[in-house]
């Protein structure tokens, strides 16, 4: 199943990624990509007995082919790439180590052409 989300680029970068929604943002279009059941859920507390969590002991790499519909054809590929990085960024604002929260985001974004297609590589880890 595919997920479609609004895509924003951050105009300010004053906050920790946990508070990214508070930044000034500009809408650049929509992004559609295959859903990944293993993508980290920020609200999912770490549980040592949970086998699904154990699978995340190492860095989890995922690949997505995404289709972006820019709000205007004038929006540059470089801007969309930055917006994709902002979209996938996950972090926490805990003040202690080993909180178990997910952190990470885009490792690489490659523009595949035709004005719409991007190959996205993401990497996430638990904070242990
Ligand atoms: Zn945390």
What does this structure look like?
By secondary structure, the protein is mostly beta strands. The chain has one domain. The chain has two helices and five strands, in the order ββαβαββ. A five-stranded antiparallel sheet has the order 1-2-3-5-4. The mean pLDDT is 84. Bound molecules: zinc ion.
Question: Which structural traits does this protein have?
Answer:
mainly beta, 5-stranded antiparallel beta sheet, 2 helices, 5 strands, binds zinc ion
Radius of gyration: 15 Å
Approximate shape: globular
Estimate the helix proportion, in percent: 10-25%
Report the sheet-strand fraction: 35-45%
Name the hetero compounds present. Answer: zinc ion
Through-space gap between termini: 31 Å
* Number of helical segments with 4 or more residues: 2
What order do the strands of the largest sheet run in, or round the barrel if closed?
Answer: 1-2-3-5-4
Count of the separate structural domains: 1
Q: List unreliable stretches of 5+ residues.
A: none
Please outline the major beta sheet.
5 strands, antiparallel
DSSP strand count: 5
Order of helices and strands: EEHEHEE
Class by alpha and beta content = mainly beta
Write down the overall mean pLDDT.
84
Describe what is shown at a glance.
With 128 residues, the protein is mainly beta.
Topology record:
Blueprint: E1 2-10, E2 25-34, H1 51-54, E3 60-70, H2 77-88, E4 102-113, E5 117-126
Antiparallel strand pairs: 1-2, 2-3, 3-5, 4-5
The protein binds zinc ion.
């Amino acid at each position: 199943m595919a997920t479609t989300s609004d895509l924003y680029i951050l105009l300010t970068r004053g906050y920790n990624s946990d508070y990214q929604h508070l930044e000034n943002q500009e809408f650049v279009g929509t992004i559609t990509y295959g859903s990944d059941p293993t993508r980290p859920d920020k609200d999912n507390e770490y549980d040592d007995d949970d086998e699904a969590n154990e699978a995340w002991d190492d860095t989890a790499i995922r690949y997505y082919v995404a289709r972006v519909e820019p709000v205007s054809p004038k929006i540059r590929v470089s801007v969309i790439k930055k917006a994709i990085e902002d979209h996938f960024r996950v972090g926490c604002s805990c003040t202690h180590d080993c909180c178990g929260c997910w952190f990470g985001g885009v490792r690489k974004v490659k523009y595949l052409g035709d004005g719409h297609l991007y190959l996205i590589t993401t990497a996430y880890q638990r904070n242990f």
